[in-house]
């Protein structure tokens, strides 16, 4: 009896995950990783996909490279991409890795001297249903050391967001404090890290590839000025704005604007972009952006002109204009 299409795809992905997992290196592989001050590490990267709210097919693939230890931006890239794979819990990598890998390959082709020596991934690594999350997948395929850093706890393999977990968080007194994320098997899959003194909420760090957990945690803390490490935090901010003003994903938002039905009847592109902007560091006082790094892209456009929103819903079959 033939399997349903989605189950057949999941079975195929499970085989591919198992095959790639055999290539995973869970340990330090670079000399800078063994040094207390990470001497020899000069460039750290951050990658993620941001979705237009209400559109689960188009996304903005983002890559930022920072200097280390200064954490100054050396390179940034945002590209509109179309995703062909569906979202399936536990198989996020098959949806996102191709675009993120292409961003790294593009940098290697055009400016190889700026290739990151380690990549922070906004997601999980070994802390995953089958111990092979997005950071592992990208690491193995790119060959680069990768670290998974998640802002929300993935409740998996017996790790739960319960009273015990809450008490462990309360016990984190200062930046750099951690506690292990232990699976039912007894294996430590990652660590919860209080990344700065000013933030009581931890991030969840796990190995992606070619780095040990202790080194991944130390480096994550070293890259944190706030709760989220700068390679990920800067990527999210600079995907919409740069120091010169509104830029980055505004170019992508304009493409989205042009793709809407009857776009010539909408407010001007400038007003559309103004209504779609958000950045805590931008001098412009603007409402919420349409961009989100929520994996499933389910959210509707927020605070965009009503005519724009209704036409966008019409395009997606969500209602009458």
UniProtKB/TrEMBL annotation:
<dbReference type="GO" id="GO:0016891">
    <property type="term" value="F:RNA endonuclease activity producing 5'-phosphomonoesters, hydrolytic mechanism"/>
</dbReference>
<protein>
    <recommendedName>
        <fullName>Endonuclease V</fullName>
    </recommendedName>
</protein>
<keyword id="KW-0460">Magnesium</keyword>
<keyword id="KW-0238">DNA-binding</keyword>
<keyword id="KW-0694">RNA-binding</keyword>
<keyword id="KW-0963">Cytoplasm</keyword>
<dbReference type="GO" id="GO:0046872">
    <property type="term" value="F:metal ion binding"/>
</dbReference>
<dbReference type="GO" id="GO:0003727">
    <property type="term" value="F:single-stranded RNA binding"/>
</dbReference>
<comment type="similarity">
    <text>Belongs to the endonuclease V family.</text>
</comment>
<keyword id="KW-0540">Nuclease</keyword>
<keyword id="KW-0378">Hydrolase</keyword>
<dbReference type="GO" id="GO:0010494">
    <property type="term" value="C:cytoplasmic stress granule"/>
</dbReference>
<dbReference type="Pfam" id="PF04493">
    <property type="entry name" value="Endonuclease_5"/>
</dbReference>
<keyword id="KW-0479">Metal-binding</keyword>
<dbReference type="GO" id="GO:0005730">
    <property type="term" value="C:nucleolus"/>
</dbReference>
<dbReference type="InterPro" id="IPR007581">
    <property type="entry name" value="Endonuclease-V"/>
</dbReference>
<comment type="subunit">
    <text>Monomer. Interacts with PABPC1; the interaction is RNA-dependent and stimulates ENDOV activity.</text>
</comment>
<comment type="function">
    <text>Endoribonuclease that specifically cleaves inosine-containing RNAs: cleaves RNA at the second phosphodiester bond 3' to inosine. Active against both single-stranded and double-stranded RNAs. Has strong preference for single-stranded RNAs (ssRNAs) toward double-stranded RNAs (dsRNAs). Cleaves mRNAs and tRNAs containing inosine. Also able to cleave structure-specific dsRNA substrates containing the specific sites 5'-IIUI-3' and 5'-UIUU-3'.</text>
</comment>
<dbReference type="GO" id="GO:0006281">
    <property type="term" value="P:DNA repair"/>
</dbReference>
<dbReference type="GO" id="GO:0003677">
    <property type="term" value="F:DNA binding"/>
</dbReference>
<keyword id="KW-0539">Nucleus</keyword>
<keyword id="KW-0255">Endonuclease</keyword>
